[in-house]
Design goal:
3 strands; three-stranded parallel beta sheet; mainly alpha; 141 residues; globular; Peroxisomal Thiolase, Chain A, domain 1
Length: 141
């Protein structure tokens, strides 16, 4: 994937080794999720300890099937696990709201949007809802 090495790991308080072992989906969630909040006028210092919830829809992740040369080391488990996506985003920004990664067959994105909207109606929290599908193998398309 072109430009994947351009991920700013310092922005999200992680080491280069941890960033190298991360699924590209997780990197995109961090970058695009923060960009969405930034465009809404939010900054890292204003988000810390906020009740912002994170709802991530994911599915059909191919990271485990992509051959990689480098040793994955200690970060392999968290770098490739789908369930880490929402929690990693919440943790790196210090968010205290709900954090859910949804993996349903063909409806993960819609489910994450529904759950985020439901949270706003229930509590008035400001959720971040996102979904991803990133084909990584040339045979998948």
């Amino acid at each position: 994937m072109d430009g994947i090495e351009l991920f700013d790991c310092k922005m999200f308080s992680m080491s280069p080794n941890e960033a190298k072992s991360m699924d590209p989906h997780q990197r995109l969630i961090l970058e695009v999720g923060y960009e969405a909040l930034y465009n809404m006028g939010q900054r890292k210092n204003t988000l810390v300890n906020s009740a912002c919830g994170v709802y991530v829809g994911c599915g059909n992740v191919e990271w485990s099937m992509v051959p990689r040369d480098q040793d994955q080391g200690a970060f392999a488990a968290t770098g490739g696990a789908l369930s880490i996506s929402s929690g990693r985003f919440s943790f790196t920004l210090g968010l205290k709201g709900p954090s859910m990664t949804i993996d349903t067959d063909a409806s993960s994105g819609a489910t994450s949007i529904y759950l985020g909207a439901e949270a706003v109606q229930r509590k008035g929290d400001a959720p971040l809802r996102t979904s991803f599908q990133l084909p990584l193998r040339p045979t998948c398309c």
